Amino acid sequence: MKRVLVIGGGLAGLSSAVYLSQNKFQVTLLEASPKAGGRVYSFVDETTNTEIDNGQHILMGCYADTLNFLRLIDAYKYLKIQKNLEVNYLSHKGNSFKLKAAQFPFPFNLLYALFSFKRLNVREKFLLIKLFTKINFIDSDKLSGLSVIEWLKKEKQSDNSIKIFWEIISIGALNTSTEKASAKIFCDILKEIFWKDNTSSSIILPTLPLTKVFSEPSIELIKKKGGEVRLSEKVIGVEIEDVKINKVITDKNIYEDFDFVISAVPYFALEKFIDKKFFDKQPEFHYSSILNIHLWLKQNFLSEDFYAFIDSELHWFFNKKTHWNIVISNADKFMQMNNEEIFNLVFTELKKFIAISDDDILLYKIIKEKRATFIPDDFTLKHRPSTETKVKNLFIAGDWVDTKLPATIESAVRSGRIAAEKIVFNN
Ligand SMILES: Cc1cc2nc3c(=O)[nH]c(=O)nc-3n(C[C@H](O)[C@H](O)[C@H](O)COP(=O)(O)OP(=O)(O)OC[C@H]3O[C@@H](n4cnc5c(N)ncnc54)[C@H](O)[C@@H]3O)c2cc1C
Prior knowledge:
20 strands, Polyamine Oxidase, Chain A, domain 2, about 425 residues, alpha/beta, binds flavin-adenine dinucleotide, 7-stranded mixed beta sheet
């Protein structure tokens, strides 16, 4: 049985370890922190005794690799999958309205949704549908050099349709401003979401805390197949000789008995133990933050699973039943603020949308993820390295590797699957 060391227990590492285990490779996974899952995890909040996510994660129907991975680890059953796209929007003074795809065959279901979308005038709807229908035929390489906002303006989208429709998708998926995000990757993901099939635009929510959906079932499968998961063990160096890794050094052990290594750590961690001269491209990543605010209330009076905020610094609202979870993407400006400042700002904003008073709030918890995702600008996208490296037995995975996707669960899981396949199909 060939042996593979997987470095990093985020979703990229777990995905590669699961695929390798399924294909009869002996896997040892090394994870620096005491928990697996990387940026996707949950923990028990001691004050309220609730298991909460570090931040709400949503999946989409077009996440083909993630859905396959969840089937493999028998966790597909922990998903709530929309039949058709449906988003509830909240606007000021408690008004809400829907974007809802119809039961028609694709793509008429989505065209109907756009056509009946309130808050856009007839001209705005016409221009939006015009761009929407041509997206599938655009050669996105020709958009290189344009930002999302430049492209949308060029396509004559009004400020209102940018704010009400395009920005919500762009900031949600790319976690940066429309000024920074590349039009090329935005166009590519719009094709994935809206132009693949009937269900690709459906929103999918985990029904259990994240660790129970992703990490626990993955670890169980790896162990069942004879592999090992070593938590709290950090890789601090490797020894490369004749363009082959022959030693992996951690803060606890030295490993020499392996055939292949997959590194699935973020780029900023990888460059500490492997020289970038071994990659086919020399990347430079800048990061963007996500802020999650968990609120416990005396009474939960909202019924929908989630809402999108319109025209607000708050982006998404998730109703976790035990509490509310508000998400702010592209949240760098909040990183320097203290929790009280953040809460006051968020609460003042929330009151514009939902009729609540100070008395309704029992507790709050704020989670800042500073380096949540890399910023997908044009330069960065052109410099993402691919899975294979110049070191013969080393492959790289992670949401930042060149999967053509933004930094998402799907990118991480896909990169892990591709790295595993490079080994499986050549041995
Ligand atoms: C708050 C938040 C919300 C998000 N929301 C969404 C969403 O709704 N939908 C979506 O698709 N994506 C979302 N994302 C993005 C998604 O979480 C990431 O793209 C994905 O989890 C990245 O996985 P990864 O395995 O590439 O990296 P990571 O999750 O960062 O995993 C890397 C792992 O490597 C370990 N490691 C680092 N250095 C070493 C070392 N030297 N030795 C051993 N181990 C090491 C780390 O501890 C970590 O566990 C969100 C991210 C955040 C932070």
